[in-house]
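Thread: Newbie trying to understand structure tokens

Hi all, I'm a second-year student working on a class project, and my supervisor (Dr. K.) asked me to get a predicted structure for one chain before our next meeting. I've only ever worked with sequences, so writing a 3D structure as a token string is new to me. If someone could post the tokens and maybe explain what I'm looking at, I'd be very grateful. Here's the chain:
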Amino acid sequence: MSYLPPDQQTIDALLDTVRFNEDGLITALAQAAEAPHDVLMLAWMNREALAETLATGQVCYYSRSRDRLWRKGESSGQRQTLVSARLDCDRDAVLLLVNQTGVACHTGRRSCFYHEVVPEGLRDTTAPEVTPEQLYGSAH
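---
Reply by user tm_fold:
Sure, no problem. This is what the structure looks like when written as tokens:
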């Protein structure tokens, strides 16, 4: 399935209905569009990041730590291509169904959700598929 972007007027009208928080952000949950539909990561989007994602089909987030737009895969090559975007009932969170190139997590795992709560505390459910150095070089 291929994403077909709305025109700019439709995107602008839709963005006017989104309930961004007091910092101008919305929670964005990325999930694999293909089975087994893993939840890949949670991040943030501001209006500009959501607009860019909807217009281009390439997922763009807002990095709170860097205070700038973060185009997923810009330094690692591990891109997310949008298949579908869904707002929740309150329009204050967005679910992004994506085709993930490579891994989603900066730790080299497919998903950021690998810490499982067990009676003894936390256990890792998956090992890294690639090292952070392979993703970002030795400077990371």
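A couple of things are worth pointing out once you decode it. The chain has three helices and eight strands. The beta strands are 25-32, 39-46, 60-63, 68-71, 80-87, 93-100, 115-118, 121-124. Feel free to ask follow-ups in this thread.
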